[in-house]
Amino acid sequence: MTIDLVDVNITSPGRNFVTLKITTSDGIVGWGDATLNGRELAVASYLSDHLASMLVGRDEDRIEDTWQYLYRGAYWRRGPVTMAAIAAVDMALWDIKAKKAGMPLYQLLGGASRDGVRVYAHASGTDYAALANAITGYEELGFTAVRVQTGVPGLGQIYGVSSAGPGVRYDYEPAKRAADGGAAERPHEENWDTRTYLSHMPGVFARIREDFGTGLRILHDGHHRMSPIEAARFAKDVEPYDLFWLEDCTPGEDQAALRLVRQHSTTPLAIGEIFNSVYDYQTLITERLIDYVRSAVTHTGGITAMKKLLDFAAVYGIRSGIHGPTDISPVGMAAALHLDLAIHNFGIQEYMPHNAETLEVFRTSFTFDRGFLHPGDQPGLGVELDEEAAAGHAYTKAYLPVNRLLDGTVHDW
Ligand code: CS2
Ligand code: MG
């Protein structure tokens, strides 16, 4: 049998998603997530204008050969657009292969290594009271791990803090449309001051430990914005609060910067959600400069590439922490869950539940129970896109924010 049809679906049920649909000559359909938040159409074009004609007629079972054909055959390798396109093809082919085998994908990856996938939620608040309210809400839902992000006095709206008010908020979406809900023409801007942040956050973690005890796993996302020495200071200052991880403490492409952070602190480090290749990690992994691999299956070349990356990381005692925000579609989330269930060096899985609008378009079979997700036992990935529902949500251009220091200098968002 062969690949017969290759279609790209773009839909926007509250936020933009790009999904690849591959149909075989005997009518089996596979789905792949190709969503790159803020640059969606670049990936859609890479798929429809460049890859689709290469795929039609190929044997759908030759997943490794197709991956190499698309990676090496591009000549221009790596990068988020290329690797998201390859990821979508790879996910769709694995979905097809598992459907043909009549098994959930994790069974083809070695079967379950655990009963469920521990997840962490996003707790945020403009101030400590709102943050504590959110943490309480997530604990009541059974979460045993929460990422905590809070406002910093004097900085207004900053990364990771839902402006929708206190409580369990699933609706934090950083990519913004125009104020009237239409297409944005440029990013909105946020302000930042690292020194204020560095002096504010340790007290927040101290209060959390006082109020919620030592059992709760606390994660925090520095979101790329500290210099190496600032990150070293921050990681050292928060050491007493036993974070599960400090994420993206510096811009990750400067891999050697983490040597300085490691010299000053044992706070576990997680990096990689903006990476798209194992080569982005080579120094970080071989020198054990990180503890968790943060890539998304969608941005790193798919299941084939992610399994190799995580197996490489396992050799160095490094575990998974797969990226799972709402801008990874339910298809990409399902791919992560099948890998999470099967690999031995599982760490934790990010889980920002998609909103009701999205779940009307993407029919999922993964389930949440008291802090754990399970991908389900449907054949394949277990997610189907309802194309009729998707057609009701036109693409609407949105941009991730641009960040500036208080003097106007562009900074990492
Ligand atoms: C964040 C992401 O989930 C995270 O750790 O870093 O939400 C990130 O801001 C978004 O994926 C950007 O689209
Ligand atoms: Mg992050």
Plain-language structure description:
This protein is α/β, with parallel strands linked by helices and 413 residues long. It has two domains: 3-105, 2-Layer Sandwich (Enolase-like, domain 1), CATH 3.30.390.10; 108-377, Alpha-Beta Barrel (TIM Barrel), CATH 3.20.20. The protein has 13 helices and 18 strands. The chain has helices at residues 40-55, 63-72, 80-101, 105-108, 128-140, 194-212, 228-237, 257-264, 282-286, 302-315, 330-342, 356-361, 387-390, and strands at 3-11, 17-24, 29-33, 117-125, 145-150, 189-192, 217-221, 245-247, 269-271, 292-293, 319-320, 349-350, 362-363, 367-369, 372-374, 384-385, 402-405, 410-411. The strands form four sheets. Strands 4, 5, 7, 8, 9, 10, 11, 12, 14 and 15 form a ten-stranded mixed beta sheet that branches. It has a three-stranded antiparallel beta sheet with strand order 1-2-3. Strands 6-17-18 form a three-stranded mixed beta sheet, with no helix packed on it. Helix 2 (63-72) runs antiparallel to helix 3, helix 3 (80-101) crosses helix 10 and helix 7 (228-237) packs parallel to helix 8. The longest helix is centred in the N-terminal third of the chain and has 22 residues, at 80-101. It is globular, with a radius of gyration of 21 Å. The mean pLDDT is 96. The protein binds D-mannonic acid (CS2) and magnesium ion. Magnesium ion (MG) is lined by residues 221, 223, 247-248, 273.
